Amino acid sequence: MTERFTFTSERPSGAAELEACLALPDKSGPAHGILLCHPHPAGGGEMDVGLLQVIERRGVAAGFAVMRFNFAGVGASTGLFTEGMDEPADVGAAFEWMKSRDGIEEVSVAGWSFGAWMALMALADGVPAEACVAIAPPLMLYDWRPQVGRIAASATTRHYIVGSNDQFCPLGFLEAFAKAISEEDERNIMALPSSDHFLNGREDMVAELVLEFA
Asked: What is the DSSP letter of 129?
C-alpha cells in the first residue's frame, strides 16, 4: 500500500509543504522505516528516480516501511531549493513525520548523491536516525572538512556505498572523509567495482546493501 501526502518543513528560510509517499509492507505489526533522500534536481533528481524506487520496492517486499519525499522547490513541493542550506531541515521534518506514524518503530535514513550529503548533514544537525546509508555522497563538490566533527558527534551508525569509478566521490576522497570521522566509518565503506556515480545496472545490489545496513 502506498500513500501520497504532504507534510510541513519548518525551514530557516520559511515553512514549505513537501510532497511525499509512504509505502507500507503487507504485514501486521510494527515495521522498521527507511527514509530516502533524492539527488540534486539540476541533474534530474527527485523522489521518483529509479534507484529510490528500486530501494522502495525491495524494502517493502522485505517488510520495511519506505518513505520518499521531494525537497522544497522540487516537483510539487512548495518553497525554494537552497542548494543544501535548508535541505537538512527537510530531512529532519520527514524523519519526524515518519517517526510519528503508528506502526513504524525505528527509522533509518538513506540518500543518493546530493541526498546522501543532506542525510549526513541532518545527522550533524542532530537527527537521531537508527542508521544512515550514504550512497555516493558527492564529496568533490562540498567542503566537507568543517563538517567532520559535527557528523562524528552523531550516535547514528553510518555506512557508505560508492562506485569504484565515481566521478564526484572518488574512493580516495570517501576514504579520507570516513577516516577523519572515525575508524568505524572507515570500515563501513562498500565499493562496487566497475561502477560510476550513477550506478547503472547496480540498482538491485545497492538496494540489497541499503536493506542490510538499515
From this structure: -
Task: Count CA atoms within 13 Å of residue 185 on its CB side.
Answer: 22
Q: Which CATH class is domain 2-213?
A: alpha beta
Strand partners, 112: 135
Cβ atoms 192, 160 nearer than 8 A: no
**Locate cell 522547490: which residue?**
73
Q: Which three cell numbers stand for residue 170?
A: 572518488
**CA 199 to CA 69: how far, in whole Å?**
21
| Domain edges within the chain | 2-213
Cβ neighbors of 143 (< 8 A, separation 6 or more) are none
Amino acid at 23: A
pLDDT single digits (tens) 105-139: 999 999 999 999 999 999 999 999 999 999 999 99
- pTM to 2 decimals? 0.98
The number of C-alpha atoms within 13 Å of 110 and in the hemisphere containing its C-beta is 29
